[in-house]
Amino acid sequence: MTVNPANPATKVFAAGQEVAREAAPAEIARTKEFNSLCPVSAVCMTRNLMTAGEP
């Protein structure tokens, strides 16, 4: 998946990457935010906080 530089979330997750919604961990996929508050068109991103370092 390609990161869209025009997406505001890209700045927050600069060290992260866009992922398919289906790749979200079950703990995240079960949340109200993931299932109803964020539209299906929302970008799903991941960032490894243990190796990301300073933003």
General description of the model:
- It is a single chain.
- Helices cover about 25% and strands about 10% of the residues.
- With about 55 residues, the protein is an alpha+beta fold.
- It has a two-stranded antiparallel sheet.
- The chain has a domain at about 10-40.
Number of strands: 2
- The share of residues in helices is 25-40%
Shape: globular
Gyration radius from CA atoms, angstroms: 12 Å
Q: Which residues form runs of ≥5 with pLDDT under 50?
A: none
Report strand order across the widest sheet.
Answer: 1-2
Distance between the termini: 21 Å
Average predicted confidence as pLDDT: 77
Quick overview:
The protein has 55 residues and is an alpha+beta fold. Helix content is 27%, strand content 11%. It is globular, with a radius of gyration of 12 Å.
What are the SSEs and their pairings?
Blueprint: H1 8-12, E1 17-19, H2 26-29, H3 32-37, E2 44-46
Antiparallel strand pairs: 1-2
Q: Main attributes?
A:
single chain; 55 residues; alpha+beta; two-stranded antiparallel ribbon; 11% strand; globular
